[in-house]
Amino acid sequence: MNKIWNGAGRRIHMQEVGTRDGLQAEQAFVPTDEKVALVNALSEAGMAKIEVTSFVSPKAIPALRDGEIVLREITRQPGVVYSALVPNVRGAERAVDARTDEFNLVMSASETHNLANLRMTRGQSYAALREVNELAGQAGATVNVSLSCSFGCPMEGDVPAATVLDWCARFVDEMGAHGVTLCDTTGMAYPGQVAELTAAFRERWPATELTLHFHNTRGLGLANVLAAMDAGADRFDASLGGIGGCPYAPGATGNVCSEEIVHALELMGYRTGVDLQRLIEAAKRLPALIGHDIPSQIVKAGRRLDLHAVPADFEAIRERALARDL
């Protein structure tokens, strides 16, 4: 894995999910104009893709009940893909009206998790996603399918790689999905597993857009990103401030943190296209909006070379030290 320590200018695409995956987990309702400002800040920072919102029923996720308004009012930057989670046909109709660039469809690789989370079997979910896929095609939107629990289920345990790849085959070969996201929904992934599954996917579908979505629940987020990169991945979901999480992972610390991943990759010589300082400034807005601190260590400690002033009495200290030499 030595090659990952020197990026040599390799392009890595950073995709922001905090405005959907992060905010949907918050108790506080972030005002619509603040959501718009946050998405605009992320666009200006240079994120390759932004999952702006979700078109789940407003009763189920009231925190994102203003999704259509947000998508209509943001300032769209050329080259940035504006995505939304679309669970069903009704959600697809709302997404079309809001001019969503990409429909992100979700189901689980685990039957138990799919039933607990979506109240459907995997087969029923797949049939519903095919309907949404058809509407997306008619609207000219691309489709990405996010496969939850690709690296393990909190109720079943390990999910066989063969099961994950079989579902990917249905998305790519049967449905014609533009992209697939392999999701570490509750932070169960580890680097060796990540490298093997990523390499297997890349070998089988080299032309399909592959995204990895990691959570830092057990502190392996960055290690898993590096393992996936070494196996050929170049697209990663991350969340501003490290916010977000899953109700089936008590104590989960949320998604991998956007500014932490960008900071690490830039130090290693990779090109993310992201203005890190702008990203940090956007993350600093979050505590006031959501009403609590955020996990981001970069917001707390600053970048590696964000230096500090010397003590106020530094000159006196130096003079006393030099006097001892005399």
Spell out the blueprint of helices and strands.
Layout: E1 13-16, H1 18-22, H2 32-45, E2 49-54, H3 67-73, E3 81-85, H4 89-97, E4 102-108, H5 111-118, H6 122-139, E5 142-148, H7 161-174, E6 179-183, H8 191-204, E7 209-213, H9 221-230, E8 235-238, H10 258-267, H11 276-284, H12 286-290, H13 297-301, H14 314-325
Parallel strand pairs: 1-2, 1-8, 2-3, 3-4, 4-5, 5-6, 6-7, 7-8
Helix pairs in contact: 2-3, 2-11, 4-6, 8-9, 10-11
What Rg do the Cα atoms give? 21 Å
The count of strands amounts to: 8
Tell me the overall shape: globular
| Tally of domains | 1
- Determine the structural class based on helices, strands and strand pairing: alpha/beta
Strand order of the largest sheet: 1-2-3-4-5-6-7-8
The CATH homologous superfamily is termed Aldolase class I
CATH topology: TIM Barrel
**Would you tell me the overall average pLDDT?**
95
**H/E element string?**
EHHEHEHEHHEHEHEHEHHHHH
Query: For the terminal residues, how far apart are their CA atoms?
Result: 53 Å
Describe the structure in your own words.
The protein is 43% helix and 13% strand. It has helices at residues 18-22, 32-45, 67-73, 89-97, 111-118, 122-139, 161-174, 191-204, 221-230, 258-267, 276-284, 286-290, 297-301, 314-325, and strands at 13-16, 49-54, 81-85, 102-108, 142-148, 179-183, 209-213, 235-238. The protein starts with 12 loop residues before the first strand and ends with a helix. The model has no long low-confidence stretch (mean pLDDT 95).
